[in-house]
Amino acid sequence: MIIVDDGSSDATATQLHGLPVTVLRHATNQGKAASLCTAFAEGLRRKAKCVVTLDGDGQHDPSDAARLLWAWRSHPDRLVIGSRLHDKSQFPIARYRANRFACFWISWAAGHAIADSQSGFRVYSAAAMAVALSDRVRGSRFTFESEILIEAADHGILTTAVAIPGHYPDNARRSHFRPVVDIAKIVIMVAGRLLRKGMHPLGLWRSLQHSEVLSAPTELVVPDA
Prior knowledge:
By secondary structure, the chain is of the alpha/beta class. Helices cover 42% and strands 13% of the residues. The mean pLDDT is 89.
């Protein structure tokens, strides 16, 4: 397990002391994009075939990683996303609407239907990590993960979604995602890419097709590293 401590000022480092994990620490807070890049670089350095990413705000259940790895083993050429949007009853309405809006734009630019473009619970293959670390992906904050999906698709790496439950525990750390501001930034990034592609009409048609969300078997466990 690789944990990126992005310049935390709480007791994160103390809580991790003595655990069998690799801790990569930024001296100052650099944001989510920088944290993911640090993790991807470490994964590639270790010659990992893939990495599973999840956020640290309590919205992702680590045991669901088995569902994503199951899907990735069936589609190793894909970028696997843990999709929560099917579970609308568990989703805060403002976040749900913002995510659906982002999905429309990002799917258009990527040229295929993406079930949950804002989920950070993903499986990245080594090829997808290399794309994320390239100079073609320049976004920061939440635009970074959205831009990866578009650039990966340009390299022939499409997405596959697997259904995971939506988790919004009452005691979870408040998300740093700002529905209005961050979605606006994502749309501006996507608009720039669409303009460079001549508005990508074929991509729009393909993006409007149904996005399949796989249902993993119930009896799954996370395999040993």
